[in-house]
Design a protein that fits this description.
Length: 307
Amino acid sequence: MSLRLFGNGLAACLSSLALLLASPSFAETPPAAAAAAAEQPSEMEVASEAAAAAQQHGPAKIPLGEQGALDLPAGFAFIPKAEGARLMHAMGNLTDGDFLGLIIGEQMNGFISLRFERAGYVKDDDAKDWDADELLQNLKDGTEQANEQRAARGIAEFVVAGWVEKPAYDAGTHRLVWSAEVRDKQPTEDSGAGVNYNTYQLGREGYYSMNLVTDLASVEAEKPLARELLAGLSFNEGKRYGDFDSSVDKVAEYGLAALVGGAAAKKLGLLAVIGAFLAKFAKVIALAALGVGAAVKGWLGRKNKNA
């Protein structure tokens, strides 16, 4: 979900809105029509209300389709696929069939996008001898390649500044964690650093990905929360990584290093794919800058007041 933070996104939105309202087309709107339009809730308001109403609070076991489930701890809430997707769309983000929902928490300033990627069985051999410096360079290369597309579309470019947490893979649990700091390529005084804290749980037919969208100032405090949620992910019997059957199962076209833009991705010519991945989540971090964290905390607060 996600690698860009707009330092002053809210101010920019308000400035744009002010200019729009000052334009002749808006100035000529009949008072009655303007009043009626003002009474209509925005898509963001409607989506937010739907998400708040649908949230499921922990502790709870959240089914995740045919693949597995999430043991959601106390202090967190899960927004299901339909309402989560609507909220993401209202905020300018696309979702697809792999999207499963959003996770918010009382101690989180950001939020987590949960997905299942049906990529097949991802071999983890390359994790034994991968090099963090090489992984970082390939991630930078992929980002720079994506910048060409962003520039052509008039979207601000960004760069990977370095690791927030170097890629680490636990072969016993088949879990991968990594995080990079991303900044504006042409920073301004108000520019900030965005962070995606990426966690993965490998399975027989693909992998779960939980992408914590936050900022550099909050990530250290939120890392333990992301890891707690990762530990709560589990595959159903027959869908676990250890259930792989080489005679019938599909093997992914890339190895584990490709999930962080490493050597495997370079060999397979997947830098464009990685770049697209980074661009795909670019808007998500902007949402955190626009106060989404505060909003979701308000939703969680409703439960406390009701209790």
